[in-house]
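We were asked to recover a plausible sequence for a given structure. The inputs and outputs are reproduced exactly as logged, with field labels preserved.

PROBLEM: sequence recovery
POSITIONS: 614
GIVEN STRUCTURE:
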């Protein structure tokens, strides 16, 4: 190998042909190859200086990596608020464990986060109010007080003194959380007001689209922010968008945001009252007649069955709510809920600048075929939200009754013409909730041949392909089954066979949500069968299709019903109803264990029964 001056070798000098080859190599590929031999000293020093901690507390320093832009005050508030609330929660945990060193270090870090939030928000926001400045001062004073008292605790060894100081630290921490919640509340309210005002005053489609998108993103942060949006006139502004023809392409987005806001009581109240009070009377609307029946849930048969079923379902619902509550508590409620308690006041009517009735607007959109299917589907989603039987305040939405016939008719038509499973799901969910909302809806559905339309849709995989959709269908059938004429329509459309199939609903993915949906389908299918079996023709058809065998299997095998007590109760009720019409379809052991005893005794027997593999 020939050496050249300077210690270079001849082999290292590229020949002309090699140069051409190097030029043809992709530049990114060359950079990736060279990157293996490169180091950046500054990055290496930073990595070496960072402590490797097994504590989850270290995550707090990484949350704001790649933080919001300099002109994004809302995201700044949300991200900083999440970090500070998480730090407060962790400090409380360490305080309970008497880990004073960790409590002090986290208190210092909390002070830094709070100071950063105050300074950063002041830099990007408009002139702050005197009230906000006062609360900012209180927050920083409490942060300094917390750091000082935790530092003193590090120097105390007497357990009795530490115990008294621990109470002082706990009180300071609680007061700090309240002050921070108030500060975050004021800042978020200010930003929401700006968004709502921007939507309300904008004539530009791009500005309105962007602002509505920001408002929708806020609704996904949880119920407290939905309450703020509702209180500050967000429902009014969004319905104003839905009344302007120039914004037709934005209707789906505005309606989707409305559905999210109406998950809280303030949103529903503003939809009904905060909008309609400033209206001139609409000629299509009439006052409810005297003696109008109060809304109630359809179907109150089988008192003993429902009493036991409600007890079982209530416990499960309570557990489910507990999980949701804990999740929200981890993220924001530590400090935000304390500060948002003032938002439970009634919505001021002066927010309503536009003569738009929310329910009437939804009815107009649903009944207008010139609107796109996506727009009508989102309007159906709003209807489903404001009529949800799981929200107690929706049962008092009396103005909905005045437009119910138009809305029900439009929803049935949307189910019939739906081009996708999502559209059908939204429309059928709205119908299912309306059947809980008032008993008149079931009569309307019967007159509109809804049973035929729903049962035909079950054979269309494009529209009905998930247990969530079948859950809505069987809910409608269960509530309609209290009507005597419903039985003949279901027999005519081979509905008993469909109900039999729903008793065998199985999850595909095994996710908790899908498993729960399958349980609801099985339970409601059994309820529907129990109610319809008052008609001897339905009972005989069910026996012919071996429904009794499937019900017995669900009662005796916990695996088949996913160990659901609610499904067990419903199946026992249905089996007893069928046995009363066709007792010859039962074996003696099944009759003695599942039919002859009291319902509660059979339930206890089956719920404690181990699955038999014999």
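RECOVERED SEQUENCE:
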């Amino acid at each position: 190998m020939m050496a050249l001056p300077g210690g270079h070798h001849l082999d290292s000098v590229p020949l002309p042909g090699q140069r051409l080859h190097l030029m043809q190599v992709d530049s990114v590929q060359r950079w990736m190859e060279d990157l293996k031999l490169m180091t950046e000293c500054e990055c290496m020093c930073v990595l070496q200086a960072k402590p490797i901690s097994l504590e989850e507390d270290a995550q707090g320093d990484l949350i704001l990596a790649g933080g919001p832009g300099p002109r994004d005050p809302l995201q700044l508030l949300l991200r900083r608020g999440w970090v500070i609330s998480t730090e407060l929660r962790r400090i409380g945990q360490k305080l309970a464990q008497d880990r004073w060193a960790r409590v002090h270090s986290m208190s210092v870090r909390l002070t830094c986060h709070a100071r950063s939030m105050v300074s950063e928000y002041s830099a990007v926001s408009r002139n702050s109010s005197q009230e906000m400045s006062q609360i900012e001062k209180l927050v920083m004073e409490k942060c300094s007080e917390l750091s000082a008292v935790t530092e003193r605790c590090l120097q105390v060894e007497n357990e009795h003194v530490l115990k008294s100081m621990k109470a002082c630290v706990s009180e300071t921490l609680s007061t700090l959380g309240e002050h921070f919640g108030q500060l975050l509340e004021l800042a978020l309210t200010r930003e929401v007001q700006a968004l709502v005002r921007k939507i309300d005053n904008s004539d530009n489609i791009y500005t309105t689209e962007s602002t509505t998108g920001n408002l929708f993103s806020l609704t996904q942060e949880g119920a407290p922010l939905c309450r703020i949006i509702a209180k500050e006139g967000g429902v009014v502004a969004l319905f104003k968008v839905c009344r302007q023809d120039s914004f037709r392409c934005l209707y789906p987005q505005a309606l989707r945001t409305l559905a999210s806001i109406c998950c809280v009581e303030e949103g529903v109240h503003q939809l009904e009252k905060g909008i309609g009070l400033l209206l001139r009377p609409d000629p299509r609307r009439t006052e409810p007649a005297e003696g109008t029946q109060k809304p109630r849930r359809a179907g109150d048969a089988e008192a003993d069955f429902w009493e036991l079923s409600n007890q079982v379902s209530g416990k499960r619902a309570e557990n489910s709510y507990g999980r949701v509550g804990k999740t929200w508590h981890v993220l924001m409620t530590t400090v935000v809920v304390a500060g948002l308690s003032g938002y439970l006041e009634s919505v001021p009517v002066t927010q309503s600048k536009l003569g738009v009735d929310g329910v009437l607007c939804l009815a107009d959109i649903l009944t207008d075929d010139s609107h796109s299917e996506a727009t009508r589907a989102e309007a159906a989603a709003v209807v489903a939200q404001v009529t949800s039987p799981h929200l107690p305040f929706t049962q008092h939405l009396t103005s909905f009754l005045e437009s119910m016939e138009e809305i029900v008719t439009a929803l049935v038509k949307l189910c019939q013409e739906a081009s996708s499973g999502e559209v059908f799901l939204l429309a059928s969910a709205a119908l299912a909730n309306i059947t809980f909302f008032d008993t008149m809806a079931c009569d309307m559905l019967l007159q509109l041949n809804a049973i035929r339309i729903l049962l035909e849709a079950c054979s269309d995989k494009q529209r009905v392909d998930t247990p969530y959709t079948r859950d809505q269908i069987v809910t409608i059938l269960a509530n309609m089954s209290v009507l005597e004429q419903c039985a003949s329509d279901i027999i005519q459309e081979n509905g008993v066979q469909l109900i039999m199939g729903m008793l065998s609903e199985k999850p595909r993915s095994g996710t908790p949500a899908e498993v729960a949906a399958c349980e609801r389908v099985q339970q409601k299918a059994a309820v529907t069968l129990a109610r319809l079996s008052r008609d001897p023709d339905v009972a005989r058809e069910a026996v012919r299709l071996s429904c009794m065998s499937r019900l017995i299997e669900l009662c005796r095998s916990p695996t088949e019903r996913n160990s659901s007590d609610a499904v067990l109760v419903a199946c026992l009720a249905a089996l007893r109803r069928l046995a009363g019409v066709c007792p010859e379809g039962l074996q003696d052991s099944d009759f003695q264990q599942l039919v002859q005893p009291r319902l509660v005794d059979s339930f206890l027997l089956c719920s404690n029964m181990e699955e038999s593999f014999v």
